[in-house]
Design brief:
This protein has 104 residues and is mostly helical. It has five helices and no strands. The chain is 79% helix and 0% strand.
Length: 104
């Protein structure tokens, strides 16, 4: 009984046309299912990158504001980042061993 219904459904030209159309759209078309999945994952990755860069921009804006307003922060930044020093002053770089131990 079930087999007869299946055979009659497969003989129906509308069912065959719809099935062929779905197979074509899912696998063979230029905008197939796999391509759409790749586009969606690429969009998600770009969205994460956008959020990261926006947070970095906010961080840099606050740092810039601090550097423009506070001379102590400016001096600390110059000494740490660019290794600047005063006259008759020596600078010694001490490696951070705690960070290296955590990586091992």
């Amino acid at each position: 009984m079930q087999r007869k219904k299946l055979i009659t459904a497969l003989k129906n030209k509308y069912f065959v046309a719809i099935l062929a159309f779905l197979v074509w759209m899912l696998f063979f078309d230029g905008n197939n299912l796999i391509f759409q999945y790749r586009l969606k994952s690429s969009l998600n990755q770009l969205s994460r990158e956008k959020d990261f860069y926006l947070s970095e921009i906010d961080h840099d804006k606050t740092l810039l504001h601090k550097l423009e307003t506070d001379t102590a922060v400016l001096e600390k930044f110059a000494r740490e980042k660019y290794l600047m020093k005063r006259k008759n002053e020596d600078v010694f770089l001490v490696p951070d061993n705690a960070g290296m131990d955590a990586k091992r």
